[in-house]
Amino acid sequence: MSQTQMLKGIIDGCLLAIINEEECYGYEMATRLSHYGFSSISEGTIYPVLLRLQREELVSSTRKQSTAGPKRKYYNLTQKGEDELAVFLRNWNEISRNVNAVITREVEEEEK
Amino acid sequence: MNAHVLSKTSQQFLENLRMYLFTSGKRESEINDILQELTEHLTDAEREGKSTEEIVGQSPKAYMKSLSSEMNRDYRTWGLKIIPMLLLGAISFLFIQDLLQGEFAYSTIQITGYLLFIISFLGGVLIAFNHLAKSKKSFLKEMTWLGIPVLLSMLILIGALILDQNVVSPMIEFGIIGQTLLSFLMIIFVISFSFWARTFILPIILIAFHLPPILLAYTPLTTDIQSLLATVIAFGVIILYLMFMNDEDDEKSYAT
């Protein structure tokens, strides 16, 4: 399975988490994503996701002066977005715990 | 901060994206919005020495599709363009046929039928468009919402035409002046509409269906062969035109 396929849905949660830290614009999000290790996905991938998050009213946006100078489109979490982030974190913790359990058990069995 | 001029590849990509989203019937404000955001992103990225490919991925076409699928269709403009075209097309088609055959007189039932058809068709479809424009719907829902008014208005029209065949109602005739005036109006209408909608599909269809029979009438072929040939030519011309237009669209959105 390619990373891109596995990442569907996970990217949504990661963007919510990044925006939750502080309001930011697309380029900052992409830079942070790759800074955290998601360097294999192309930066543009975030925009279809942002369009979806906006349509589902999980994020809102405003255009304003960026720290670097020119105007940029900044994203914020809405209340609905914060709730969705909480759901994502709960789900993610459960999934990662389960996946880890499956993998480590398999590894242990191999070692026996 | 000095202004950065985007690379040719990025500019080309943005141009293609605009064309792609526009021909996919997306709302203009949303197109401008995403293009502005991507222009800013590409500018920032190129300043740091990144290539266009690092942003849009290996397949620009696939990337355009993924953006497009998250954007709303512009039902109002779309409706304002496609619907009048269908109606005008159907009406001018019928009129020109009657005009060429010299049967330019209609019964009151026929005319009422046409009017009711136009009103129910336009009204129904506009209501559907307004409803659909509010949020993103599945393809099936879109088709159902649009299909119902189209089907209903067609039933009204067919009903009126059947009634007309069985019930005699007073005829309304257009004299020579009326006919000339109507045909003149029709031609102006078709041409200006084509320029406005930026497609010549309507005049192409009209010519493809009506010109060959007239020309073929001068040949020594039997009428059966004439009408067969006319049909083949008509569909051939229309298919060629559509293929030609499609190729042009593809080239525009593909080249990156």
From TrEMBL, chain A:
* Limits of the Transcription regulator PadR N-terminal domain: 15-86
Extract the Pfam families matched here. Answer: PadR
Tell me the SUPFAM superfamilies matching this sequence: Winged helix' DNA-binding domain (SSF46785)
Q: Which InterPro entries match?
A: Metal_resp_DNA-bind_regulator, Tscrpt_reg_PadR_N, WH-like_DNA-bd_sf, WH_DNA-bd_sf
Origin, by domain of life?
Bacteria
Q: What is this protein called?
A: PadR family transcriptional regulator PadR
**Which species is this UniProt entry from?**
Geomicrobium sediminis
UniProtKB/TrEMBL annotation, chain B:
Query: Pfam families annotated for this entry?
Result: HAAS_TM
Q: Does the keyword NAD apply?
A: no
What start-end ranges are recorded for coiled-coil regions in this protein?
28-55
Q: Which residues form the HAAS transmembrane region domain?
A: 93-207
| SUPFAM superfamilies (alphabetical) | BH3980-like
Mind listing the UniProt keywords for this protein, alphabetically? Coiled coil, Membrane, Transmembrane, Transmembrane helix
The reply to whether Nucleotidyltransferase figures as a keyword in the UniProt entry is no
Q: Which domain of life is it from?
A: Bacteria
Ranges that cross the membrane? 78-96, 111-132, 144-162, 174-193, 200-219, 225-244
Q: What is this protein called?
A: Membrane-anchored protein
Species of the source: Geomicrobium sediminis
